[in-house]
Amino acid sequence: MDRATEVIIVVVYCTVLITVTCVLPLIDRIPIPPPTTPATPGTPSHGLPRTPLTYNTPEVTTRAPAALSYSYTTSGYESRAFHIPVDISDPPLVVRYQFVPKNVTRTKMITSEYGRKETKLITYEMPSEDSWLRVRILDGQGHVVDEGGFGQIPGEGRGFGNLEGKVSTYRQGKYTVEVRFNDMKGKFSF
Prior knowledge:
Layout: H1 3-27, E1 71-73, E2 78-88, E3 93-101, E4 103-111, E5 119-127, E6 132-138, E7 144-152, E8 159-161, E9 164-169, E10 173-189
Antiparallel strand pairs: 1-10, 2-10, 3-9, 3-10, 4-5, 6-7, 6-10, 7-8
């Protein structure tokens, strides 16, 4: 197939696509007057005045969603806890978070297993064990609907590994957004 044929096919395809997505939905909005019987020649006119046709256009009503938003950005490495009650009448509730843990510098003595078996002292950075983050959505009874975060909270047996992400619920109801963090820098919002 040559280049000119390809161009014609693409142009026809785009034209059909635009017609189907843009023009056809607008056709339903065009008011069509009711059919009238035309006056035929030879029928007497009664001299009645013609009244202009009026069209009743329905008003478009939209329900505005209940807008609730909250955001917090740390000013440095902080340790905070937030418990924010939320009544969701227009789901979803999506809490987005993005944090960075405090890094600590460690030194470690290593010995090479190859060659002359040299011993070296290396320095490296890693997230502090004291840095953790927990983002939760709790229902009215205090049950966890969704949660995420980073690190391991002291006293809890499990940890999370997401420094950024989202937790969400898609049902109406009363919830509590719980955000707790220690030695973290970042932001969250919903």
